[in-house]
Design goal:
Blueprint: E1 2-6, E2 23-27, H1 35-44, E3 50-54, E4 57-63, H2 67-80, H3 88-94, H4 104-127, H5 131-137, E5 139-140, H6 141-145, H7 151-154, H8 162-183, H9 185-206, E6 212-213, H10 217-238, H11 245-249, H12 253-265, H13 273-293, H14 300-322
Antiparallel strand pairs: 1-2, 2-4, 3-4, 5-6
Helix pairs in contact: 4-8, 8-9, 8-10, 9-10, 9-13, 9-14, 10-12, 10-13
Length: about 325
């Protein structure tokens, strides 16, 4: 709200303030919660202002020569913050003011997933010693390209030894809990399985003849890519329109840090570096797709169906392998 006036028409019922300017403009937001942000906007642009009172109403007084600049800055602020702050009832109902770092549903779901994967590892090791199951389900580039596509799924559930299994459990549970909190449990589980499945497909086209691998690490690094994509997109969106080279670089730090983490933990001697890189790349792509689709807005029923689909994909792989 803007008001122009002259010196003789000013009333100040609470505080007697000497007028420093012969003419001025006054501003007042419709929402009182924006009053302090408006002051911060003017101060950041070095536009002089004074707060005056008429009864219980506070107004922002600006020299008339700076009124146009002040109006432009406040209009820009309002445009960029059109939907903030949300109505108090909406804030309470959405729980946005107290969002948990990791949701209970995501924590429990990914713990259950990797607990079942661990039990499967123990069962296979005790009954078969990885012999027959390894032969049927291990990822083999030559066999995948010959049509045994299910190995892209079955290999995700096999592990060579207990340290291999525990490493994937640790990282998968931690990263999965974060991703599930961001996009929903169902979308998180499906994104993880798809990044592993499609990452193995990509590795078949990029790898060399005789390349064999097994383990959940392809989809674990897919989770890392998912998380990097989600947070990088958010950062880039928040700084859109801001100036400064450093400001433009900062939003990319989640992606840069994730690449550094992948190079640190995913390129150790004896690991499948190409598989890790492919899983990470597909995770980034799926994370961007999830962000565009806003999958976290899906209903609980839809999230449940997505999670069920991710489990059925792994089961389907073994159905084909054992057929």
């Amino acid at each position: 709200m803007l008001q122009d006036d002259d010196e003789n028409s000013v009333e100040n019922n609470n505080v007697e303030l000497p007028l420093l300017f012969p003419r001025y403009a006054e501003f007042r937001p419709d929402d009182e919660r924006r009053f302090m942000p408006w002051l911060a906007v003017l101060a950041s642009r070095r536009i002089p202002y004074r707060v005056v009172y008429r009864g219980d109403e506070a107004w922002i007084r600006v020299p008339l020569r700076r009124a146009e600049a002040a109006s432009l800055e406040l209009m820009t602020y309002e445009e960029r913050n059109r939907d903030w702050p949300p109505p108090e009832g909406e804030m309470r109902s959405s729980g946005s003011t107290q969002k948990a770092f990791v949701s209970d549903a995501s924590f429990a779901s990914f713990m259950l997933f990797f607990a079942v994967l661990f039990r499967f590892f123990l069962w296979v090791e005790n009954h078969d010693g990885l012999g027959e199951w390894n032969r049927l389900g291990v990822w083999d580039r030559d066999l995948v390209l010959k049509g045994e596509w299910w190995r892209n799924l079955t290999a995700l559930t096999l592990h060579s030894d207990a340290p291999h299994m525990f490493s994937n459990m640790f990282w998968g549970f931690g990263l999965g809990s974060l991703v599930g909190t961001e996009v929903g449990v169902g979308a998180g589980l499906l994104g993880m399985v798809l990044s592993g499945f499609l990452g193995n497909w990509l590795m078949a086209f990029l790898g060399v003849s005789g390349h064999r691998s097994l383990g959940a690490s392809t989809m674990v690094f897919g989770l890392l890519g998912l998380l990097a994509a989600l947070h990088t997109w958010r950062g880039v969106t928040l700084i859109r329109g801001h100036r400064g080279s450093l400001v433009r670089v900062i939003p990319w730090t989640p992606l840069i840090a994730s690449v550094a983490m992948m190079s640190l933990y995913g390129a150790a001697p004896g690991t499948d570096v190409l598989g890790h890189a492919c899983g990470f790349a597909l995770g980034v792509i799926i994370g961007l797709a999830w962000r565009i689709m806003k999958v976290w807005t899906l209903t609980r029923g839809t999230q449940f169906l997505l999670g069920l689909l991710s489990i059925l994909l792994l089961v389907l792989g073994w159905v084909y392998a054992l057929a």
